[in-house]
Write a structure and sequence with these properties.
Structural class: mainly alpha
Shape: globular
Distance between the termini: 39 Å
CATH architecture of the largest domain: Orthogonal Bundle
Strand content: under 5%
Number of strands: 0
Helix content: 55-70%
Number of helices: 11
């Protein structure tokens, strides 16, 4: 992996997250990068245990491509949340610096991975890079997820009172993370599924989810 590319990622791309909402600051970008790389490292072990796995898992993973895809996945937040995944793709394709290290086909892979990472996306990511970044972005840790949900509400719905924020957070948690929610996990060897099941147990119980949301709300 090129030292120059790593400097560009960590010194110029990741700092762009500093102006985003609290749930999508530089620490979020660094977590997604770290998680994506760890998931990629686990691929060969999983393949050895699953010799009948489909061809999509047998494509060699270019760690440089994955690094930049993970680093850039949320850059589109500079234009707001609604189209941020698509705007991230636009930003990637327009970044002339990336052409120092990647050809057009690789840049397209990076852009598509960013476009495909969004949890509300209804289609399967187009490449293993999109699957890895999407899974890395879904670091399932119950308290972190609830905190980020509340932080998003505080930033985007400032007129809500405490009860309004609690109700909004519970509704969003159930819509996205609850059993039957729209969140999809793509990587078979990730331990996200087990952690998600534990979170779903909390979300499904009216008393437990309210207590947890209120407890975390009062720490923010």
């Amino acid at each position: 992996m090129s030292d120059e590319l790593q400097r560009y990622v960590y010194d110029e791309l990741v700092p762009r997250y500093a102006s985003f909402d609290q749930a999508h600051r530089e620490d979020h970008a660094l977590t997604v990068i770290s998680q994506a790389m760890s998931l990629a490292d686990g691929l060969s072990c999983w393949l050895s245990e699953n010799p009948d796995a489909g061809d999509i898992w047998r494509v060699p993973v270019d760690k440089d491509v994955l690094l930049v895809a993970a680093a850039c996945h949320d850059l589109g937040l500079v234009n707001g949340r609604e189209r941020h995944h698509l705007d991230s793709g636009i930003i990637i394709r327009a970044d002339r610096r990336l052409r120092q290290w990647f050809d057009e086909a690789q840049i397209e892979l990076i852009a598509q991975a960013a476009e495909d990472h969004r949890a509300s996306g209804k289609s399967t990511p187009r490449s293993i890079y999109g699957m890895l970044v999407a899974e890395a972005d879904r670091v399932i840790e119950g308290e972190t997820i609830i905190r980020r949900t509340i932080q998003y509400g505080l930033k985007n719905y400032p007129d809500l009172d405490r009860e309004g924020h609690v109700v909004r957070a519970i509704g969003h948690l159930r819509e996205k993370y609850g059993r039957g929610g729209y969140l999809k996990l793509w990587i078979p060897w990730s331990d996200n599924a087990m952690r998600l099941s534990r979170l779903q147990d909390i979300i499904a119980d009216d008393t437990s989810v309210r207590q947890e949301v209120e407890r975390i709300f009062d720490t923010i």
